[in-house]
Amino acid sequence: MARPPGKALRQVFGEVLSELAGRDARLLVLDGDVASSTGAELFEAQHPERFLQMGIAEQNMLGVAAGLATVGFVPVISAFACFAVGRAFDSIRVLVAQPALNVKIAGGYVGLLTASTGKTHQMFNDVAIMRSLANVTVLAPADEAEARQAIEAMVSTDGPFYLQVAREPSPQLFGPDYRFQLGRAVRLRDGADVTLVSTGVETTRVVEAAEMLATRGVQATVLHLPTIKPIDADALVDAAIATGFVVVVEEQNVVGGLGGAVAEVLSDRHPVTVKRLGIADTYGESGSNEALLDKYRLSASRVAEDVESLVARGSSHAADEVRATKLGRVP
After folding, report:
1. CATH fold for domain 186-320
2. For residue 106, what pLDDT is reported?
3. Whole-number pLDDT of residue 322
4. What is the CA radius of gyration of the chain?
5. What value does the mean pLDDT of the chain take?
6. Which end of the chain has a smaller Cβ tally under 10 Å, C or N?
7. Is residue 6 very low, low, confident or very high in pLDDT (cuts 50, 70, 90)?
8. Could you state, in order of their start, the residue ranges of all structural domains in the chain?
9. Domains 9-165 and 186-320 share a fold
10. Cβ atoms of 191 and 197 closer than 8 Å
11. pTM as predicted
């Protein structure tokens, strides 16, 4: 089912921060010379006195943000994920995460769709890195409605946050009645054959894939995790119990990302088969959005194909187990 087009989350980022600044005098934006690309230029235009251009010096920018947080400001970092996380990791770890300071880090240009910037600017392990840091909350909204509410929650909640901000427009997934809850998963669809778990804008493609699968006789539960850390373990367990088979789909490296987080929860609380679809431990390349999603099998059609294949193999394996049990053999 085609969904209405929505705004790019980077535009929502700039708009919401501009609105919030009118209500909260503590809010500042620190930019790493990428405001025209991250949406922070919208904030700069409306609140120039509260916009700090820090230049291409991300480690220093995190240090300045940490200092501002200690005197009561709410600093929001605006930078590409590859620079905010990859280049400034030690500053985040030591200056922000360890003292649990009230710094908000927005990683722009996340995932594959980064306007043909290629492997240097594509960051596929920011989720793995940031969820590994104690005290840090990690958010990845799917569309403009959810992004708006997630940003508001981030700014109003004390402590360090990491927010994924996708570059490209995202289809509208949620209506006007949607309410984002920090730390809570969203069950978008119910099905008995498989549970599909996703986060961020990839969820819009996973929902479309689930609709394709339904026409082929595969009914999928779709669980969206806008908060990756703290993860909604109860929702994951409930979905795993209902279907007995979980496939995680993410626009991240399959090593250490959302799939790793889901496997950690389920191996501890309700062991089931967990398969991971995403970037298969490699670096990206330049190309059109459609070409990249197709190559890395993250388009709706490719996800549907791979899930259908996994479900068929899982059903075959289950049948083999039943036959082996009847014959007194354990596979």
Report:
1. Rossmann fold (3.40.50)
2. 98
3. 33
4. 20
5. 93
6. N
7. confident
8. 9-165, 186-320
9. yes
10. no
11. 0.93
